[in-house]
Amino acid sequence: MNPTSARETVLELIGEIAPEVDMGSVPDDEDLRDAVDLDSLDFLTLVERVHEVTGVDVPENDYDQVRTLNGWAAYLAAHAS
Amino acid sequence: MVAEGTGTGQVSSVMGDYALACAQFSWSTAGDWLDGLPQGGRNIAYEAVDRHVIHGRGDHVAFRFVASDGLDVAWTYAELAERTSRFAEVLRELGVGPGDLVCGLSGRIPDLYVALLGTLKARSVFSPLFSAFGPEPIRQRMGIGHARVLVTTPALYRKKVHGLRAELPDLEHVLLIGPGSAELVGAERIGPGVVPLAELWATTTGAFEIEPTDPEEPALIHFTSGTTGTPKGAVHVHDAVVAHHATARYVLDLRDDDIFWCTADPGWVTGTSYGVIAPLTCGVTCVVDELEFDARRWYRLLEQEHVTVWYTAPTALRMLMRAGSAPHEGCDLSALRHVASVGEPLNPEVVHWGLQEIDRPIRDTWWQTETGAIMVANYHGTEVRPGSMGRPVPGIEAAVVARDPQGEVLRGPDGGPIPLDEPDALGELALRRPWPSLMRSYIGAPERYATAFLGDWYLSGDLVRRDADGWFWFVGRGDDVIKSAGHLIGPFEVESALLEHPAVAEAGVIGVPDPIVGEVVKAFVALKPGFEPSDALHRELIGFGRSRLGNAVAPRDITFQQDLPKTRSGKIMRRLLRARELGLPEGDLSTLEVPS
Asked: Residue A37 has what pLDDT?
C-alpha cells in the first residue's frame, strides 16, 4: 500500500465514523482527536476498521504513531502487505 | 473478597476504623475541619485556595498541568490565589455580580481552573460545560441557566457558540482563554462582547477580598440528564465544600503531601468536585493531564509525577485492560497508594485486573450529580468486595426502598418510602437528607426537584441490593437514562435532536451494552413518507447527530425501523426497544399500542 492510497483509505474510514467532517479539510499533521473531534472510542473504532479493511493491526504501543493523517499513511505504507 | 494489597504494605488510612468513624461523625464537626471565611460565612474558593496561603503553605504546588507541547505549568497555592483573585476582579469590572452565571467550555487548560475558582471568589455561580458537547447541548444548558458569561477558547467559540448568539440573549461576555487567545488581544472582536481574558488582566491587581458568603449561596450548577425533557441544572451551594473535603479525606484518603490525579474532565461534576475543589481543600498537588487517553502515556504520567492517589473511571480502566501489559512494562508505580473509581459500576474483572497488573485493588465509589459528593464507597485500608459499590460514607444514611411494578417508589404510612431491611432485597437506593452537598434545587424546575424526594429521602433512581454485611451492589438504572463513559445521557435530548432532521418522523433512543464504555447510544428512526432507508441517509443522520450534539452525546448506531413500539398514549416504549435489541424478556406489554 502506498502512502496516497493509505491516506485515502483512512479518510474514507474517518468519514464512516464522523460523516459530518469535510474530508477535504482534514489537516495532515494535527491530532485527529482535536482536528475532527474523534474521541477515544471513535479512535478505537478507527483502529478496528483499519484492521478489517487493510489487515494491519495497530498495537496499543504504536498508537502515538497514528494520531495524525500523515502518521496513518506512513504506518500503513510500512505495515500493509 | 480481596485482601488488602497496596503494594506498599501500608494499611493505615485517614479515616481509620469505619464503624468508629460512622459513630463519631457529624457534619458540623466536619465543617470545623475547614476554616470558614474570616469575614463571615463560607466560600469554596477560600477553603480550596486562600486558606492554605494563610496557613503558610503558599509555596506548595497546587496544580501541575501536563501539556501537549511539553511546556508543563506548575502553580503554587499562592500563585493560584493571585490568579483567581484577578479573575474575580475581571468579573467585578464587567459588572458581573453575586448569583450571576459563568459557564466554562474548554479542554483541561490552566485558565479554565482559574475561571472556576475565580468565579466562586466573586460569589458568582459557575457551571461547567463539556468541551465535546455540540452546539445544541451548549445552547440548552446556557439558556436554562441564563448564563451572562462564557469562558472558552477562540476555536470552540467559533465552532460551537458564535452561531448561537441570537438564541442566547443573556450572554453578554465571552472571555477567551487558551490557544490563540493572546493573539487576539487588542485585535478586532470576533463577536459581540468577545474579549481575550488577557486583555482584561492588565488592569487587575491580584488582591481581592472575598466578601462574606452565606454558606447557602449558590456556587455551582451541574447539568444532568433525565428520561424526559430538557437537562436538569442541579444547584449546589458553598457549604457543599464541607462534604467535598470530608469525602476527600475519608474516601480518597488525601493527606497534605499527596500527589493526586483525577482523570475526569472538569466539564462534568466529577472533574469539578474531585478534580479541583475537594483535593485543593486538602492542600495537595493536583496533576492535570491536558491530553486525551493514551495507555502508555498514562502509566508514564503516574510514574513521572509520583502520583500517590488516583481517581479514575471504569471506562478508562477497561481501556487500560484492553491495552495489556506492554504499556506499563518497566513503569515504577511504587508511589501509588490508593486507586479509586467512579462513574459507572466497576465490574469485578477490573478489580481483579488491578490486583494482577498494577498490584493495587481498585476501589469503587458511587455518587451522582445531585448528591454533589461521594455517598457510597470502598475505603482505603478496608476489604474490597469486587463488584460492590461499598458502604455509605460517614454522615450518610442509605436505604433500599420498595418500588411498585411500574417502577414508582412506594409511599409508606408516614409519607416516606418503605425501607427494605432484609438482605439482598432489590429496591431503589435512597439517601436521607440533609447533607451539605445535596443539590438545593433544579434551576427553574421546582416540580422536577420535588419528585426527586419522598419525605426525608432523596431518591437516586438507581436499583441496588444491600448484602447482609451492609455492602451495596448496583443492579441497574430504574429509568431509561443511558450511561456512556460514565456520563448520563438523556434519551429525550438525543431523540429531539434527531427529529429536527427533515427525514425523521420518529426516534427512540436506548443504551446498548459496550465492553469499554458501559453503554453506547443507539437510535431507532422511523422515516417520513418520501424517504427511504439507505447507507447515504444513515451516514447523514450519524453526522447530523454528531454535529448537533457532539460525539459525547450523539448516537453511535442508527437503525431504520418504521413501526416503533408505542404505548396507547403514543409514547415510544424504549424499554421494549431495548429488550428486543438485547434479546431480553419483553415484560409487561399491557400498555403496548396494538397496530390496527
From this structure: 85
Give the separation between CA B493 and CA B554, rounded to whole angstroms. 10
With beta carbons less than 8 A apart as the criterion, state whether B511 and B520 touch: yes
B366 is written with which cell numbers?
458511587
Q: B179 vs B108, B111, B152, CA distance in Å?
A: 12, 11, 10
- CATH number of A3-79: 3.30.420.10, 3.40.50.300, 2.30.110.10, 1.10.1200.10? 1.10.1200.10
Per-residue pLDDT tens for B507-562? 999 999 999 999 999 999 999 999 999 999 999 999 999 999 999 999 999 999 99
Nearest to B316 by CA among B358, B253, B258: B358
Residues of chain B contacting residue A37, judged by C-beta atoms under 8 Å apart:
132, 546, 550-551
Q: pTM value?
A: 0.91
* Domain identity same for B92 and B210: yes
**How far apart are the two ends of chain B, measured CA to CA in Å?**
55
Contact status of A40 with chain B (Cβ, < 8 Å): yes
A41 with B542: Cβ contact below 8 A:
no
Q: Across the interface, which of A20, A31, A61 has its CB nearest the CB of B547?
A: A20
Are B88 and B168 part of one and the same domain?
yes
Q: Which three cell numbers stand for residue A23?
A: 474530508
Amino acid at B282: C
Q: Which residue has the cell 492554605?
A: B52
Residue A47 sits at the chain B interface (C-beta within 8 Å): no
Q: Would you call B297 and A64 a contact, using CB atoms and an 8 Å cutoff?
A: yes
The 10 Å CB-count burial string (b at 16+, else e) for B110-126 is: bbbbbbbbbbbbbbbbb
- The label of the residue with cell 482563554 reads B177
Distance from CA of B558 to the nearest CA of A (A): 12
How far A60 CA sits from the closest chain B CA (Å)? 6
Q: Are B489 and B521 in contact (CB under 8 A)?
A: yes
Looking up cell 483541561 gives: B108
Which three cell numbers mark B261? 490525579
